[in-house]
Amino acid sequence: MEHGTDKMGTSPGQLHRLCRRRTPDVTFSFDGVAMHAQEGDSLLCAITTLASHLRVHEFDGRPRAGFCGMGVCQDCWVWIEGGHRVRACTTQVREGLRVTTRGPLLPGMGAETSA
Amino acid sequence: MTSRRTEIAIIGGGAMGAWTAFHLARRGARVMIVERSFPGAQASGVNYGSMRIQGRFLPQLPLSLRAQRIWEESERLLGTDVEFRRTGHLHVAVDAAQQAKIERYAADALAYGLGVEILAPAAIRRRWPWIAPHAIAASWSAIDGAVNPRLVVPALAARLAALDVAVLQGRRVTGAERLGAGFRLETAEGDVIEADMLVNTGGAWGADVAAWFAEPVPMFVAGPSEMVTEPLPYFMQPTLQIVDGSIVIRQVERGNVIIAGHPRGPADALKMRARMPGAKTLTNLQRVADIIPCLSGASIIRSWSGIEGYMPDMIPIIGPSATTPGLWHAFAFSGHGMQLCPGLGAVLSELILDGRSETPVGAFAIDRFRQTQTVDEDYLRQEFDAGVVKA
Amino acid sequence: MSHMDGPGIVIVGAGPAGIGAADVLVRAGLRPVLIDEGRRPGGQGYRKSDPTLGLSLGYARAANYKRIHAVFTALETQIDYRPETLVWSVDGRAAYLAERGAVVDAGLSYDRLILATGATDKIAPVPGWTLTGVYTLGGAQVILKDQGCSIGRKVVFYGSSPLLYLAAAQYIEAGAGKVTILDTTPFARKAAASLKIARAPSVLCNGVALLAGLKARGVTIVSGVSGLRIDGEDGRVAGVSFQAGRRPMRLDCDAVAIGHGLRAETQLAELAGAELAYDATFDQWLPRTDADGRAADGLYLAGDGARIGGAAAAELAGRVAAMACLADLGRSIDKAELIRLRTRRDAYHASQEGLAQAFAWPRHAFADLPDETVLCRCENVTAGAVRAVARSLEGVSDINRVKALTRCGMGRCQARMCGLAAVEVAAAARQEAAEALTYYRPQPPVKPIFIPEPALSEV
After folding, report:
1. Chain B residues closer than 8 Å to A107 by CB
2. Within a domain: residue C127?
3. Looking at this predicted complex, what is its ipTM?
4. Which of A11, C224, C235, C295 is the most buried (most CB within 10 A)?
């Protein structure tokens, strides 16, 4: 799992910014690593411009980085700390958000498992 | 018009008909199933898959325990895994009346060979910490379990083919009558079938068949409310239900959590349509959250219903016809038939071929409605939406 | 719903069809509820680009786009507008809602329901389509318009659809690097269909101009592509290999946008009582309506969710449906105007039929998909598994039986991504027509809804 910085030239991310938003910077964390995005970015954009994927599929164990971008394919779910799950493509990034690819430890659930 | 002949004709290719055919064929009988669409198309394929023993009408326990022994062998018998798992059932009491009910049942069931364990809150919390704290007692039955109903009848159908059972699919029986010492059936598709004996496992349509033989029964139809979540990390082994059946929850190994809950709503046996109403979904969503709080935030991805036959006394019709020798009934399983079906098939095959069975089913005689029946109205109100029960 | 405001009319979808319908109703003095899943109006075709991006694309300067958004802005205070709201079920003349996934605890009653639910991409899976870096065509456009991003640095647009060309042009316009178009339909088929496309002359003209513009910018366009496979490294797209005619080719790339036209969202229509029928032109089951969009008592359908027609047709269909609704409520309507709208709408529909021929669903390619190709990306079910079960079924051959036994289509996306392909693969395995297997029956909720917070307080 690679988390890059926002150097556009050598980013290991998937999405490639063609223009910068004219909005304030936002800092959030993804699996504990600090990342930078712009207000107005979807979580899908914020994460996958810098990282190669945002989820590991529960049945094939392979990475996923979204597919339809519009809330239909249900492939881009991430966990928000506090126990909520959201679709990355239809959720906006916020300052201080803590996003994880793996589920939180919940009562009765034996161990951390992937989303 | 196509003429056919067999020894034993079975109307209805659901779980009851298929298991009965299985047991009969294994003992060498020539069997023909006449099925309206495809085997397992109706309630058999869409039910909750609950292999529940505790909580049953006590005289049903011998049949239920026998069935469970066969389920434990199901992978060997069917040649494939239909996901029968002995994961146990927990009946949770949230008030004093429910607690008294499970304690009474635990005492009564012992005489029938079923031992269940009554647990206090501390023990519940220790073993299953994901249950909400307002559970005041629970009854734990370790031999109960679950199955994937969608896989059962298709697996049986493959075995039936190997046993040379004829399965006529896409055939709607329009009438059946006595013919000499045997029977004659007609289908809408132009078949005429003659048989020595007839078995009515017509499910939610079984009362129509009984009516052809002048033994009407006060069966009505209803649809269970079922829904399922997305796959979630596996954490729930047993099936959990609140004693009054208002919510039933279990998780499969793949991770999906399956949820049902009473009261049941209407189903349309003529249009072959049943759907879980939106308002009911809302109610059951809240009930899930209240009893298993860590499921908040999980997504529901599908809901469904089915068409099931019910009797006002909430127990099935099993046994010989009261009017016509050679005719056998097994229908109206009142929402709890899936667990019984392998046992039911064994018992019916014994009654038909041997004239007797080691497992008593006298309590389910079709002619019990000739006497006045006391029906528990309060119980029915809890089990069904207003307007569903037509007795 | 307040009946003091007149009959309760609910419109689902704030794309061009929904906006057109709302406009007609408001002009008649009514105050409909307009429900939409998105944050901003416009649906997909007229998706309002995020202003903070400062991205200026040609489509946003087009007259229709500007007009639709102006219409909405004028309407907004005169309707009950509910964005970021999902209608997850309809029954008993009530719509069940969820706001950002959280269910609303009572149904919304209505007298009339206008569904303008639109469409999503129709997908024909290929080996490697679950690698990261593969997106739908629609997804590639949304990511550009909403996020100002390209899906990669070397993008292949693959499939068969006018959107391949439109999306590629938008990417070039926005400054994306290398863009290649791989079209599975041979050029000859497009030429043969051009007369039909010309039933709406603007559509043909725009298409030709688009193609010319792309060629002028040096974009590589290959037609008649078959047998495409996406290959990857570490789970990410690394390139594509395919046949161009009979010539094997390979291209390096880091992203693929895939799409073969549009797939109508018909689930709510069916739950609300519409009947579906197989449409051989669009290779899918579409709701039956009369000439004005009536599908059942009190139910009206408009836009791509009823019949694939494109954004201009959708607006016209929305207006027609709303007029039909008014007529049914006993209001007087301008019959001449209704006929004019219908005629214009029908011309677009005829043109779309030409487009469907020019950009064909690769019906014959499904039999050639390797067994190990994943069909259902939610449940990880392969083409081989679907074929095996499909072949084993006796009697009724119905995709819902295949679903029950393979789990294909039982995942979170509710068969939206794999449903049409699964039918084609199963049908080919049985040597039956796709129509014989029917379609995935919708079950509520039509999209996932969350289990809420507990209502009981902790003891």
Report:
1. 129-130, 294
2. no
3. 0.94
4. C295
